[in-house]
Amino acid sequence: MLRILFYPIILLLIALSVTEFIPTVKWAVNHYIIYRYMAIGMAGYAVLSIVRIFNKNLEWMRTFSHELSHTIVGIMFFRKIHSFEAGVGSGVMTHSGGLRFGDTFISLAPYCLPIFTYLLLFLRELGASSSLYIFDIMIGVTVAFHISCFRRQIGNYQSDITSVGITRSYLFIFAMWIVNLTILLLSLRSGVIDAITDVAVNYWDRLCDWYKFASRFIVETFSKLSL
User: Fold this and answer.
1) Is the separation of the CB atoms in 101 and 118 below 8 Å?
2) In sequence order, what are the beta bridge partners of 162?
3) DSSP letters along 53-119, please?
4) How many domains would you assign to the chain?
5) DSSP SS3 for 27
6) Rounded (10°) CA dihedral 101, 105, 108, 113
7) Structure confidence at residue 2 as a pLDDT band (50, 70, 90)
8) Is the pLDDT of residue 11 over 80?
9) Which segments of the chain are extended strands (E)?
10) pLDDT, tens digit (0-9, with 9 covering 90-100), for 84-106
11) How far is it, in rounded angstroms, from Cα 76 to Cα 137?
């Protein structure tokens, strides 16, 4: 049943996400100064990534974040974690039990869940207003790091992707990246908690509006046909 419902659900999520993402980007462009420190952090990561000392352990960090993403989402779906290994270019996380419908989320988490960025966004909520620029720089570093992980690790050769299905995987990853980027842009504007709340409420309100429109359209169509 979940496999049958996947496509309509994910396409609906993409539609909701895009309609929320577009006005968020427009606002961000008009208020780009808010994101200057994040941009500095992203540029800083780009410079550091070509420094030999930093780049030496970067591949291990990418593998570690990959397996850590599997682990965190696995725990969220009440999976029992049996092993966690991260080496240079290869790693593995094994699990069992828990909620079965979480398989897609667990398998694809490394490709669409910027865990270090979200960690800093929540820590940013605790920071003093005078130190928020420090968090924003660090957030920029993590955003660039996760983008580099995505670029290096995404591909049809990944068992995470083939186990879910190539088309299903890329649709899911695309939808989640739009959601993540929307939350990121809103978080630097009003905080991550408010951002997540606003996105959830806006999605629900828009979904209700679409349902009312569709219901009215169907009723009016059948009324005309009956006449």
Assistant:
1) no
2) none
3) HHHHTHHHHHHHHHHHHHHHHHHHTTPEEEEEEE-SS-EEEEEE-S-GGGHHHHHHHHHH--HHHHH
4) 1
5) helix
6) 180
7) low
8) yes
9) 80-86, 91-96
10) 887 776 778 888 876 777 788 98
11) 28
